[in-house]
Amino acid sequence: MHELAIAENLVDTVCTRAAGRPVRRVTVRIGALTAVVPDDMRFCFDLAAMGTAAHGAALDLDLRPAMVFCRVCKIDQRLPDRIPLCPCGSADVTVTTGRELHVVSVETG
């Protein structure tokens, strides 16, 4: 479960930025290709936040689909799974979304 390591790093980063202020809400953008399981991420965030300025903070996840630009079809396609192939079968694609994993906002108070 790599979500725990991600959550621990997230809590450390957010608490450092909060500079002692209590963290109320954290929004994180997560792409489908990161293989992060949303429910596991929420659980691990709550666990990692215990005893920190982020204890009790809400974690909002902005889940992004995996999209590729197919050089054969010349169009953007949404991937039905985590395999970066165009639905036409071509592997000649550029991933345009789905690899995101970053903090969008932090609410303190």
Automatic annotation (TrEMBL):
Keyword Metal-binding among record annotations: yes
UniProt GO molecular function: nickel cation binding; zinc ion binding
Top-level division of the source organism's lineage: Bacteria
Keyword tags: Metal-binding, Nickel, Zinc
PROSITE patterns reported in the protein's UniProt record: HYPA (PS01249)
Residues binding Zn(2+): 70, 73, 86, 88
Family annotation (Pfam families): HypA (PF01155)
GO biological process terms, semicolon-separated: protein maturation
Signal peptide limits: none
Chain positions recorded as Ni(2+) binding sites: 2
HAMAP family for the chain: HypA_HybF
Family from the record: Belongs to the HypA/HybF family.
Function according to Swiss-Prot or TrEMBL: Involved in the maturation of [NiFe] hydrogenases. Required for nickel insertion into the metal center of the hydrogenase.
Protein name in the entry: Hydrogenase maturation factor HypA
Annotated organism of origin: Actinoplanes utahensis
Lineage: Bacteria, Bacillati, Actinomycetota, Actinomycetes, Micromonosporales
Gene that encodes it: hypA
